Amino acid sequence: MRRLAFLLLCFAALTAQSDPILVPEVSQHEVQVRQGFTGTELLLFGAILDPRGQRAAQNYDIVVLLKGPTEPIRVREKERVGGIWVNADSTAFRSAPSFFAISSSRPISEMVDDKTAAIYELGLNYIQFSPSGVIDVAEQRRFAAGLVDLRGQQGLYKEDMHGVSINGKVLYQARISLPSNVQTGNYTAETFAISRGRVIATAVADVEVKKVGFERFVEVFSKAQSLLYGLVAVGLSVAMGWLAGRLFALV
Hints:
With 251 residues, this protein is an alpha+beta fold. The chain folds into 2 domains: 19-211, Sandwich (Immunoglobulin-like); 213-251. Helix content is 31%, strand content 40%. It has helices at residues 2-18, 114-120, 137-153, 214-224, 226-250, and strands spanning 21-26, 30-33, 40-49, 61-67, 70-81, 84-97, 100-104, 130-131, 157-160, 164-167, 171-178, 185-195, 198-211. Strand 5 (70-81) and strand 6 (84-97) form a beta hairpin. Helix 4 (214-224) packs across helix 5. It is globular and about 75 Å long. The termini are far apart.
């Protein structure tokens, strides 16, 4: 009995050692948002190696996921009443990623089942929103789909099922663009190696998106002196309105 247990332990150890190692990297670990920022493109790349640091012995599928900081959000549904669009039903999510982009070497539905995809959030249909209040499953799905569609139109949620290229079983790369309206904060670039329907290796790299220059000053000032910032904003608005009125009067 002891010999059998020992053999099982040895087999488990050898199996664990056979899993590949992912070595991820990102072209920019810091994205600086300045005045006139029009967006940028990140190159997520890396290598797939065996535990000895050599070329992997088999082919693996690769999925790359870039996720932005989470935030609470309330989603409202519009309804047309008497020719006017008004707010109707709404629901709140405690945690929704501000940015979500996923790329894979082939369609994820061909790699894993729905359960695995949901565990690792492998796709727009599997983003794990955290609803607040009383939960109605059908309503939650409807509002989640609406949020995904809205942020997809804004360029903040996207997926590319053929966006990862793999060369020689070793090197992989994917390009993900960040739009100009991207939120600042800490982003995580996750890489998944998949084989025979299982996620067998993961790795994470960090990316920081931050404002610099005058934009950074305004952001810090608005948080540190919120009342004064509001007064200045109102004063500037009034001054610009008065100036515009004087200019039109002269014309």
